[in-house]
Amino acid sequence: MSKRNLLLEIGLEELPARFINDSINQLADKVGAWFSNKKIEYSELKMYSTPRRLAVLVTDVAERQEDSHEEAKGPAKKIALAADGTWSKAAQGFTRGQGMTVEDIYFKEINGVEYAHVKKFIEGQDTANLLPEMQSMITGLTFPKNMRWANEELRYVRPIKWLIAMFGNDVIPFSITGVETGNQTRGHRFLGTEFVLSSPDNYEEELLNQYIIADADKRKKAIQTQLENIEQENDWVIPVDEELLDEVTNLVEYPTALYGRFEEEFLEIPEEVLITSMKEHQRYFPVKSKDGELLPYFVTVRNGDHQHLEKVSRGNEKVLRARLADAAFFYKEDQKLAIDDALAKLKNIVYHEDIGTVAEKSSRVRMLANLISERLELDKETQTAVDRTAEISKFDLVTQMVYEFPELQGIMGEKYAMQKGETPAVAKAINEHYMPRNAEDGTADSDAGAVVAISEKLDTICSFFAIGVIPSGSQDPYALRRQATGIVQTLVNKKWSISLELLIGLSLNLITEAGILKRTNEETFQDLSHFFGLRMKHLLQEQGIRYDLIDATLGSGLRDIPGLLDKARVLQEKKDEDGFKESIEALSRVLNIASKAEVVGDINEDLFENEQEKLLYRKFLDAAKQEEEGIAAEAFYQLLESLKGEINNYFEHTMVMADKLDVRENRLNQMAMLASLITKFAKVNDINVK
Amino acid sequence: MNIQNMILTLQKHWSEQGCILMQAYDVEKGAGTMSPYTFLRAIGPEPWNVAYVEPSRRPADGRYGENPNRLYQHHQFQVIMKPSPDNIQELYLDSLKALGINPLEHDIRFVEDNWENPSLGCAGLGWEVWLDGMEITQFTYFQQVGGLECKPVSVEITYGIERLASYIQDKENVFELEWTDGFTVRDIFGQPEFEHSKYTFETSDPDMLFNLFSIYEKEAHRQMEAGLVHPAYDYVLKCSHVFNILDARGAISVTERTGYIGRCRNLARKVAKTFYEEREKLGFPILERKEKLGHE
To answer: Pfam families per the record (chain B) (predicted)?
Structure first.
C-alpha cells in the first residue's frame, strides 16, 4: 500500500514563549492518539515549534485505515432462541440492527450466561476522508490563557494566521475562524517571505531557506553552540540558566547570539541585582571570567541573522544602561533607609485581608521562633540571633530594590542588614529564612535561619488553615504544600527531634490569640495534622518506602520527624530479613490485644500468675528505660525484636482475657503499656507480612 | 527625526489605515487607554478606528526633571482599531518602517505581556514590542473593559513617544530629545516637570484632595443616574487623577488603597454599563450605518 507524509502547521501571532513546549506536546499527543485510535499506520511523528508556529509531520501515513472486526452483544441465548429452537424475533431484530443475519450469530458466555453475538467486519476507510477531523485537534488544544480577537468566538492562545494541512501534496480541507487550510506558510518576519511549500517532506528544509529553524531542539543547540563560540573567542564563562535558554529558544525563529558591554562602575551594584536585571528584564545571559567574577558584558540572542549586529548590540547596551542606572539609584536610595523605619512601614502592608498586616505576622513569627529556640535549647548567642532575625526578617520588603525585583527578597535583606550593622549570623539568617525557596533549593544552613524558616512557614500554613484556606486538588494558591515540605526537610536536615504536633499547637495558639481563627482550634488542628501527615507520606513515598511501612510509621503520630524517617528506613531495610515476619507478628499481637483495654491503669506485680508474665514485664521495664534515655531507630527496632521470645512465651502460657476481673485488667494493662512502647516505634500491626 | 515629525508620520500612517485622527482629551489621565476615545468606544458592537496623542500623567513618576528616564508627564501615541484587523501586526511594523526603523537592521520581537487595569475593570492579552531589547510599544487585544466582555475585540497599540524618540535620536536623556527644530523636551516641559513634582510630593493638600475625590465621585454617580455618560466619565477621570496624586504623596495607606481602587472600579463599571445602554438606546448608530454601507 502506498504511503504519504502528513503535515499540520498552525500559524499564529507570536505565542507566549512559556506556552510553546507544552502546546506542541499536546498537539503531538492528540495527533498520535488519533492515528492509533483510527488504526491508521505511520512511521514517525515529528514536532516543530517556533514563536509563530506549531507543527507536526507524520511520516509514511497509510492510505487506508486497517480493516477491523467489531463484536456486538445481543440478547441472552434463552431469549434469542424460541422454545422450538428457531430464532426469536429478538434475535432477528438484533442482527438486522447490526446489518447482519441470524446465520452470523454465535454464543459467548458472560458471567455464566450465554449471549448471542455477531462479529461485524468494518472496512477501513480512506485516510484522506478522515483527515478533516484534524480540525478538532487544533481547536482542542488548551492553553493557560486564552483570548478572543476581531469578531471571532473561538478562545485561543493567539490569533490564527494560516493553516497548513497537507496529505502528500493534497490539501486537507477545513477552516478555523475563517482561515482556510492550504499549503502556504510564512518565513521569517523580516528575512523571509510567504511561500508555497512544495511538499510536507521538505518542510524543515524549505523553512530553513526562509530563515526559520523549525525544530526547537536544533534551535536550542544552535544557541548553545553560539554561546560556546562567544565564550571561546573572549575567554569568558557564560553560565547558562536552562530555564532562560528555553525561554530564549522560544522567543526567536532564527537565533543569532551577540554581546554587548556596560560601564564598569555598575559592578558596584550587588551581583544578584545585575544578574536579575539582565535575566528577568532583558533575557540576557550574564558573563563571568574564568575565575567566576562577573564581567561588565552581557549576551543576548537576536531573532535574525548576522547583519548589523553592531547596531543591535548598541541598542541593547543603551537599554541595559538605563535599567542599571535605575538599579543603582534604588540601591543608593535604600542605603538611606533605616531598619526601624522599614519595620514601621510593614504595619501598612496587608499580608492578607483576614490574616492582618505583615508587621502583625512578623510579631507572631518572632514569638513562635523564640518558643522554638528555647525548646531546642539553642545556645544564648543563637537565641539572640533568632530573636533579631525574626524581628527584622521582612524589612527588605519595603526597599526599592525588592519592590523592583521581588525575587531578591531575603538576598537584599542579607546585603542591607550587613551594611546596616547587623551581625553576620542575623544577616545570613534573614536570607535563609525563605529557604527552601523551591523544590530544588536546599534548606537553611544556620540554626537561626532554620528556626525562623520553620516559624515563618508554620505561621503561614496555620494562618491559612485558621481562616479555612486549605489546599485541595490542584488548588494551592499560597503554595502551602511546598512550605510544609520545607518545614519537614529543615527538621530532618537539622536532625531536630522536636515534635511537629507540638509546633503546630504552639503556632495555632498564637494565631488563636491574635483572633484570626474562623473555626474551632480543634478542627483546625486536626486538619493541620492530616495535612502534614499527607506531606510526610509523600516524602516517604519519594524515598521509596513501601506503603504499609509508611502507614505504620505515621501511625506513631507526627512527633520526632527525623526519627520518623529513620524508623521508616529501618523498616524498609529489615522487611526482607529472616525473622522480620515473626517479630512483627509477635509485636502486632500485643497491639491487637491491647486495643481491648478500656482504661489503662497501673500494673500490680502481685497479680502476676506465671513466670512468663514476670519475665516480659522485666524486659519491658528495661526497654522502656532505654527508650526514654534516647535511642536510635535501628537500636530501637532491635530492642523490640529482642522481646519476640518473651512475647511468644507469654502468649503460650497466659490467657490475657482471664475470667478473674482483676487479673484480666492487670494483663490488659501490661499489654497496653507494652503496646504504647511499640507504637512509639511504629503501628506495627499496619505492616503487611502476609 | 524629531518628535513632532514622528507624530506627524504616525498620524499620516494610521490616517491612511482609516483611523480618525483625534486630539488629546482635555482631562488629566494616567494613560491613553483612559481617554473616552478608547475606554468608552471599546465597549459595544460599533466599529471604531482612531489615533491620537495622549499626554499621560503619572504623579508617582515625577522626578523634578532630574531623572533622565522618568517623567511626571509623558506622551503616548494611541491607536484603537475595532474590530482588530487581520493584518494588524503588519500594519504596526509598517509604521516602524515609516519612522525610519529598518527591521533588518534591528531586533524586533513580540514578547508576551498581558495588560490588566483592575481599577478600570480592564484586561487584555498581547505583547510588548521590543526594539533591540527596548520596550517601545504595548500591543493589546482588549478582552474586557469596565467589566464588560469586548465584542468585537479592539486592538490597542500604544507607542511610548519619548522612549521611541530616545532610540531614534540616540539620546540618553529624555530632556535632550528634540521636539522640533531648536526646541527640546526640556525647553517645553522642564519647568512643568519640576513644578508638578514639587506639587505632588510637597505642596499638594491631601485634605483638599480627599475632599475632591468624594465630591467628584458623588457627581459621577449623579450624572450617571441622569444617563449623561460623558460628563460622568469626566468626573471618573478626575477621581482617578486625584487618587494618583494622593497615592504618590503617600497619603493613602495600603489598607485604604484597596478601598479607593474599589471605588474607582465601581465607577468605571457603572460608566461602562451606562455607556452601553445609552448607545443601545440610540440603536448603535455607527454599526447601523456601516452595515448599510456594506449592503450597498
So the answer is: tRNA-synt_2e (PF02091)
CA-nearest residue to B123 within chain A is: A147
- Whole-model pTM? 0.80
Nearest CA in chain B to A321: B172
Do B279 and B46 contact (CB within 8 A), yes or no? yes
Residue numbers of chain A with a pLDDT score lower than 70: 1
Q: How far is CA B166 from CA A196, B61, B134, in A?
A: 40, 18, 11
Cβ-in-10-Å burial (0-12, 13-18, 19+) of A200 comes to buried
Q: Give the pLDDT confidence score for residue A349 in this predicted structure.
A: 80
Residues of B with CB under 8 A from a CB of A: 67-69, 83-86, 89, 93, 103-112, 114, 125, 127, 131-134, 141, 143, 150-153, 155, 167, 170, 172, 253-255, 258
- Tell me A410's DSSP state: T
Q: Does residue B118 register a pLDDT over 80?
A: no
β-pairing verdict for B183-184 and B178-180? antiparallel
ipTM of this predicted structure: 0.94
pLDDT at A82: 86
Q: Among A17, A152, A319, whose Cβ lies nearest the Cβ of B133?
A: A319
Does B232 have pLDDT greater than 80?
yes
Q: Are A574 and A587 in contact (CB under 8 A)?
A: no
pLDDT for the residue A488: 95
Q: Which fold has domain B205-286?
A: Methane Monooxygenase Hydroxylase; Chain G, domain 1 (1.20.58)
Tell the CATH topology of B3-200. Answer: BirA Bifunctional Protein; domain 2 (3.30.930)
